[in-house]
Design brief:
The protein is mainly beta. The chain has a single domain, classed as Sandwich (Substrate Binding Domain Of DNAk, Chain A, domain 1). The chain has two helices and nine strands, in the order ββαβββββαββ. The protein has a five-stranded mixed β-sheet with strand order 1-5-9-8-6, with no helix packed on it.
């Protein structure tokens, strides 16, 4: 199975967004969120994780970025589209559910789709996440205004880790 989803305009708060159970990082214990954030900084400053949660560090401080997701059953290899940065991490999902989540929670933005798509398509277990990023250096720590074209683009490749 290979399924490309998005791109979706998604919200960035405080320079970050999350991949969290049920698309709601506000329900994840704060210590776990902090561990994922610290891991992101240590992991080349792009993506980090700990049990049940992943943290993506955006270039902008707040505003909107574009996020696409590729769900596959096995490592798809690096994306052929040009990107500025690529980083990988493992994410163990105890519930078999993780989705995009805004740091400040889902506030009813449109479209709802990124909150509704479960990226843990093989159920509970260990997943590999590879994030491709483009445009993070265009407006570092800035604000992405609604009247400007979206400068940051992300592709998140997700596949289950097979145990031998």
């Amino acid at each position: 199975m290979t399924r490309l989803l998005g791109p979706w305009p998604v919200r960035v708060d405080e320079g970050q967004f999350y991949i969290a159970p049920d698309g709601n990082c506000t329900e994840v214990p704060e210590k776990r969120m902090e561990r994922a954030l610290v891991h992101a900084y240590k992991n080349a400053g792009l993506i980090g994780s700990c049990k049940d949660i992943g943290c993506v560090l955006a270039g902008i401080n707040c505003g909107t970025v574009l996020l696409s997701a590729l769900q596959t059953d096995a490592d798809p290899g690096p994306d052929s589209a040009p990107c500025d940065e690529t980083e990988e991490t493992d994410l163990t999902s105890s519930t078999g559910d993780f989705r995009y989540s805004a740091l400040m929670g889902n506030t009813g933005e449109n479209p709802q789709e990124p909150y509704e798509i479960n990226l843990a398509h093989a159920g509970p277990g260990k997943y590999r996440l590879r994030l491709h990023a483009r445009g993070r250096d265009i407006n570092p720590d800035g604000v992405q205004s609604e009247d400007e074209p979206i400068a940051e683009h992300y592709l998140l490749q997700v596949w289950p880790q097979r145990t031998m």
